[in-house]
Write a structure and sequence with these properties.
The complex is a heterotetramer, with two copies of chain A and two copies of chain C.
Chain A (H helix, E strand, L loop, with lengths): L1 E4 L5 H9 L7 E8 L3 E2 L2 E2 L2 E6 L3 H16 L2 E9 L1 E4 L3 E9 L2 H18 L2 E6 L5 E3 L4 H8 L4
Parallel strand pairs in A: 1-6
Antiparallel strand pairs in A: 2-8, 3-4, 5-7, 5-9, 6-8, 9-10
Helix pairs in contact in A: 2-3, 3-4
Chain C lengths: L1 E4 L1 H7 L3 E3 L9 H9 L3 H6 L7 E4 L2 E2 L11 E5 L6
Parallel strand pairs in C: 1-5
Antiparallel strand pairs in C: 1-2, 3-4, 3-5
Classes of the chains: A alpha+beta, C alpha+beta.
Chain lengths: 150, 150, 83, 83
Amino acid sequence: MIRVQPEVFETGQEIERLTAGRTDIGAVVSFTGLVRDFNDGSDVTSLTLEHYPGMTERELEKIEEEANSRWDLQASLIIHRFGTMGLGEPIVLVVTASAHREQAFEAASFLMDWLKTKAPFWKQEENSSGTLDWVKERQSDIEAAKRWKD
Amino acid sequence: MIRVQPEVFETGQEIERLTAGRTDIGAVVSFTGLVRDFNDGSDVTSLTLEHYPGMTERELEKIEEEANSRWDLQASLIIHRFGTMGLGEPIVLVVTASAHREQAFEAASFLMDWLKTKAPFWKQEENSSGTLDWVKERQSDIEAAKRWKD
Amino acid sequence: MKILYFAWLKTKLGISEETVACSAEIRDVDSLVAWIKSRGPQFQEAFIDMDVVRIAVNQEYVITNVPLKDGDEVAFFPPVTGG
Amino acid sequence: MKILYFAWLKTKLGISEETVACSAEIRDVDSLVAWIKSRGPQFQEAFIDMDVVRIAVNQEYVITNVPLKDGDEVAFFPPVTGG
């Protein structure tokens, strides 16, 4: 399941909902990305995410399908927000459930790596002097995505 | 932080508590292990965990310290239950917070791998015919722990 | 066809969306880019380094030149930075 | 010293905890194990394959023979299966 929304979400509630009433799941891994006050050496006061409506959903669905084809998942969830977010707020959530923990760990890590380099979102940071800067692509994200062959 | 307790815990609440009011955390990874209805080819109706009070806490603390020395974590949490648990109930929770996602992912995976092979807990499964069986050590857990050199 | 710009491409050009008709001059991605660059210095500058411009046709990434037709949706944007 | 048994070692022996005094016969882990095995067939059987018995002295794993003294806490248990 994928969701693209401006609203804040709660990681715990989403995990709860995904696994409620199920007794076949042995392992649940979640990743939550949060807005932090410092990035690449400068202070951040808020973050705005632009996205490409339509293509975003398509890309996230493809990434989720790919994860489900590579790992034996019993449930998966991707939530990504857009719009303006305050410090400490969640930006993205990935949850994977499996009978085995390596499967859940690897799939969650993969989802984040591919999402970072494929899903059409762009971050703009505001700093304490009011300047808005587009966040630059990170070499480490490109390298991380390469671990999982296309 | 580590906790060894018979009581059920809520993953979401624990993550919330660990990250509340913090704006320096970029990535949070959680792993929750749940009681599932099927294990190694037989049905399970409940699970009882025995542990070694005192040594359990020491081992978990050592494992957490080790993770913090290997990765740049801003917060970490291990909760492990003991006693009898019903299907779908959580057994163990590991949460790691870091500025960077690879750090949080690797540390969480490490914590689970070491905990599985070092923390003195023993699982006893009850099946539908009322038989109690001690769970056997898994070769895959031994292999997983070896990925992280001692 | 519909042309979309995102992130700094959008702010640099001051355009988020426009409609362009296919023609003998604008028949595929490469000729569309050439035509856009010919429209003025800010266009020229925004598209000067195609290594930092990603292209999607009908919401799918394209990395080679592909033919275009009216009704297509073409998007230009920088490398993505979500997650 | 205090001797603890966990999991199937405990159920097999029917003992979870006992107190044993150190002596010339029981002076280190190896001699303690030898003495325990001498106490009867169920003890012999429980300790027949030391590959599946883990040993902790004062709540720390030991994998080699170590000397014991009164006041020590020695635990015997199967490979752990938590998590």
